[in-house]
Design goal:
With 426 residues, this protein is an alpha/beta fold. The protein has helices spanning 13-23, 35-42, 88-101, 116-123, 141-144, 146-151, 161-164, 169-184, 186-191, 210-221, 238-254, 266-269, 280-289, 292-295, 332-346, 353-358, 365-386, 394-402, 410-423, and strands at 4-7, 47-54, 57-67, 70-78, 106-109, 199-203, 225-227, 258-262, 299-305, 323-326. Strand 4 (70-78), helix 3 (88-101) and strand 5 form a beta-alpha-beta unit. The site of adenosine-5'-triphosphate has 18 residues, from helix 10 and helix 17.
Length: 426
Amino acid sequence: MSSFVRPYRDRDLAALLQLWGRSGPARGGTDLLTVDDGVDVLHVDGAVCVVADDDGAIVGLALGLAAGAIGWILRVVVAPEGSENDLTPRLLDELEARLAEIGTRKLIGLVVRDETVHARLIERGYAEARDVLCMQRPVPTSLATPSALGELGGRMVEPGLWESLKGLKDAKEIIERRVILPLAEPQLAARHAVSPPSAVVLFGPPGTGKTTFAKGIASRVAWPFVEIQPSQLAAEGPERQAELLSQTFDRIFDLPSAVVFVDEVEDLASKRDEDRRVNVSVTNEFLKQIPRFRDVPHHLLACATNWISRLDSAFLRPGRFDYVLPVAPPDPEARASIWRRYVEEITEEEVDIDTLVGATEFFTPADIEFAARKAAQRAFEREHFQGAGKRAVMEDFLGAIKETRPTLSADLVEEFNADTASFARY
Ligand SMILES: Nc1ncnc2c1ncn2[C@@H]1O[C@H](COP(=O)(O)OP(=O)(O)OP(=O)(O)O)[C@@H](O)[C@H]1O
Ligand SMILES: [Mg+2]
């Protein structure tokens, strides 16, 4: 079979995508340039692409990019059926010639070690740049679209919040595996027809960390966090509210990525119409928007509620939400790590964490934070009024705990466990 190498034409796109897609990620699983990146580059000034045409079938491609005097060799793909009489040199001949034609004086190739292209480039006189590594990372959305994000009230969450979330082991593991992994390994996920979830519901008693958890997801995937509060849409009449909601979503979907957080979702989707704090047209508009999360990549909807049993069961159905995740009250281990975090910040005095954990059985993370701040305040006031120099000591913590009313109770925990049995899905 004889194929000839010619410049890429727009109508080659489908065949080119197919060939590139078929070749999969570069060896080692990492792909510097995904198919999407490739298509993006293909259409910029300075892009040079040549294809091997075998009687109308595209059996090879080489993509380069001229940036002034530098020509980048970005990707060479050859179909297995075209590799017998290795097409790589011919594709490179043509690509290099075309890059030279538009002023390139130096060529730099991005290749995977030990792949065919690597060997071919060495044969052609390319030298490996010793100690040079190819580093990559996505541009944070905050840099890419600061104004659009700001107008939506969104922001980037500091990296590391996810790691700093204590306890919640089960929920964290589910998110790690089912949300983050498919995003981190898109090619592997696609191979197994796994698509990352697009909507989740978080439920649990007040102060257990639902909001923090949603922000943690945003920090883990490095997407901006945008909160929408349907009940706070300007009071301009129900029709206008629905319209505003739809406009807000349009703008959110224009962002390259986002974790969209809706708190107190019972305001929108309570079983009983009279418990909803918004007009039915707003609820309908919201329901209409949920499927869009499935169609627009890199957007996750996270809804939170304290009262999962009050939600309309149709609202929770699998087609809408991928997972319904319980955010449990912290167990002793989780309380210990939350206490440790605050104690370390507040004092270097000897504090017995186990005793604090035992004294705070029905405390939520929010209650623990409140008590810890109170202990710090006691030490601060003592030094101010009495001049004694110690930071918070054990007594301050125990005193603060006594003065803090726990959010949880045996009844609430029981209700949460029952809700988990009936509603949790993951
Ligand atoms: N797992 C955790 N580890 C450490 N701190 C936590 C954790 N979960 C929550 N917190 C802290 O507890 C506080 C309350 O958490 P958050 O506001 O996320 O709770 P919530 O479930 O959204 O509450 P609400 O139902 O009232 O909206 C926050 O200050 C947060 O920093
Ligand atoms: Mg909250």
